[in-house]
Amino acid sequence: EQGLQLLELGGSVEEDYIRIARCFEATRQRCCRLEQDGQRAREQLARVESERAALEVKLKHARNQVEVEMKKRHRAEAELEKQERKLQLVVELLMREPWGNEALSREQCSVLSALAGRRLGAALAPIRRSSVVDESWQSLLSHSDISYDRTEDDV
């Protein structure tokens, strides 16, 4: 636009050519700056893409590890429930058998009767779980709340 305005103004031809050359030079310098900015942006994009790819790999490994740990936990919980049922059956058997009360001490009978009156797992909870670990986070991180969006893994 400036070049067209210069041509319309009239004046000496040499001055007009100098003005036009200056406009072209300013435009060339702007293009060079824009090219440098574009190159910096491409370099930054390449770095960010590389970081993103590394983070996706870490995320995939973390998801796999969580899945493995959840399977281990489910197996351990199933085994715990199985052992609790066995222990409950033994307690009930000992409490029902007439010879069981004679062979057991008074303290053992009171413990067994207390266990028989309640759910065994609740009675044994302080024994099998460390009091140092606060398991209140379980409701926040329940395995049913975890979303596994596998569509992003294929990207």
UniProtKB/TrEMBL annotation:
The keyword Transmembrane helix does not apply. GO terms for molecular function: GTPase activator activity. GO terms for biological process: mitotic cytokinesis; mitotic spindle midzone assembly; Rho protein signal transduction. Residues 38-97 form a coiled coil. The keyword Coiled coil applies. GO terms for cellular component: centralspindlin complex; cleavage furrow; midbody; nucleus; spindle midzone. Keywords: Coiled coil. PANTHER family: RAC GTPASE-ACTIVATING PROTEIN 1. This is RGAP1 protein. It comes from Sylvia borin. The gene is Racgap1_1.
